[in-house]
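Lay summary. Proteins are chains of building blocks that fold into shapes, and those shapes determine what they do. In this project we predict the shape from the chain. Here is one chain we studied, written as its sequence of building blocks.
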Amino acid sequence: MLLLTHRVPFPPDKGDRIRSYNLLRYLSERATVSLGCLGDEPWTQDALHVIDSLTESSCIAPIGFSRKIYGGLSLLSGRSITEGWFYSRRLARWIDEVSRKQPFDAVVCFCSGMAGYTSRPGLEQAPLILDLVDVDSEKWLQFSRSGSGPKSWLLGLEGRRLRRVERQVGDRAAVVTLVSDEEAALYRQLAPSANTIAVGNGVDFGYFQRPEGVARKPHSAVFLGALDYRPNVDGIRWFCRDVWPSIRSRYSAASLKIVGRRPTAAVRALADAPGVSIHADVPDVRPYLFEAAAAIAPLQVARGVQNKVLEAMACETPVVASAQALEGISAVAGRDALSAEAPDDWLQSIGRIFDDVALADRLSQSGRTHVESHFDWNARLAPLGEFLECGLTARGEVA
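And here is the predicted shape, written in a compact code that computers can read:
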């Protein structure tokens, strides 16, 4: 089996890598796997060791400034920027070489950005399992609708062109998987002829488990996420501008820790606000979740399942999140987490957690129970395993 991912799938320290790593682990227990992926940042010896232990062969193709050139050329040629952004000659050559040596029984492609590689001559006869994860085109179209001017026009153009790619590759795939029932339903509207199923994310309960005796710090909040990812950047900037001043006005000693990888300059500037601190590229996010009285997810644009919310719930940290961030998690607002939209909603919801220890305890226990019941990785990936075990024949057919 060939697995194609748009990033090195280790360490599992951000949303896409959490899913791709667990997908690799799951597949390696059921098949002999070759892994082809792109390296958009330095990778470690630990990552190479893990990949070697899970695969028969692998290729990490470094990708840097060239992606901007290929992305621009792709745009000018009438295709999406995404198609060029994830192109690597080295990876394409490696796919050709390994597929000539021995034909693959199946190809698993992670995300729409890698879909172009699945049309390489040596892969055309192999059944394709396409893990779109999210309907990315919808994200770009949402960004377009929320802005104006040339940038908004470009985002809309990218959304429309990428939607065409998502439809075309879905028609070729034996099965298309998405991270939630909501994303799967949206994709079925775009590509009704595709064989589409939901294969959700999970969480590592053993890793994200609160130690005995670790107390939450009063009037403290944490935001966890990739800090160079636009929905996260936009969400936390909005929160610090429109919500945080009111919280500090009511709770003068309140603190907000923003934790994640590669913070942009705009995110780093948020540390100028009273009580806000940035914690970049930390080796372990769990201590920040354990000590916080509340974990926030104020995302205005969100696709699929938010791992940051699952991890906070697994750590028994009460969650306040936008409706978008809770979508796909099936959590019951008011029981498993609190939901907020307008600034005053956020102030009131966070205030309830800060002021009511019993409520915070109920949310923490219910949140943990919810993820334990619904987000075990092996159970979440089981529909994909069943599909593979049945055997793949022609496109969209299960033997």
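What the prediction tells us: Confidence is low (pLDDT under 50) at residues 393-399.
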